[in-house]
Design goal:
33% strand; 11 strands; nine-stranded mixed beta sheet; alpha+beta; globular
Length: 186
């Protein structure tokens, strides 16, 4: 298996994988509100590809912003979803994707990663809910599953309020007269 940057031709297979792993209600989650209509953070969408060329894992990080006591706004990343095909659970694909995502985010100069997930799983990568006490997700979420990892010391210190999306918009496709498609630049 290899981990590489997500390619455009991975997207359809990625969506199928997410539906299979996370179920039909995955788009109703609070974290989806932060991703809707946005592109993943530049250079921070990864695919796990099996030796036969099929996608077996995926993770993306998204640009978000938080209120900050002194700076007004501080940027961070939202991780998710992380998904691995059921046939490859327990094979280390998820761990490899996580390590790649964390290392790449740090190399690109990001200060913190936030996610909603299993504390036992994500705790092995350094995530905890100790850093998320003054911040919140838009919509319902489980406080004990709201975790963060600082890539830069004290990056989340002084942050509070509800996380907001802050990233590139996806290019919209508009259908005119149900026949021709026109791409609109954001």
């Amino acid at each position: 298996m290899i981990i590489r940057l997500e390619e455009e031709n991975d997207v359809k297979e990625r969506e199928q994988l997410l539906d299979a792993v996370m179920g039909p209600h995955r788009k109703r989650k609070s974290s989806e509100k932060l991703r809707r209509g946005r592109m993943p953070s530049a250079g921070l969408a990864f695919s796990g590809i099996a030796n036969d060329g099929h996608l077996i894992g995926t993770v993306r990080l998204w640009d978000i912003e938080l209120d900050h006591d002194e700076e007004g706004i501080r940027n961070a990343l939202l991780l998710g979803p992380l998904a691995v095909s059921c046939s490859h659970h327990g094979s280390g694909v998820g761990s490899q994707l996580m390590r790649t995502a964390i290392r790449s985010a740090a190399l690109l100069g990001h200060g913190a990663i936030i996610l909603v997930g299993n504390p036992a799983y994500y705790g092995r990568f350094g995530f905890s809910n100790e850093l998320t006490g003054k911040i919140a997700m838009p919509g319902p979420f489980e406080r004990e599953r709201f975790l963060a990892l600082e890539l830069t010391a004290e990056h989340l210190s002084g942050c509070s309020g509800i996380i907001r999306p802050n990233g590139r918009y996806r290019r919209a496709i508009k259908v005119a007269n149900c026949v021709s498609k026109v791409a609109l630049a954001s």
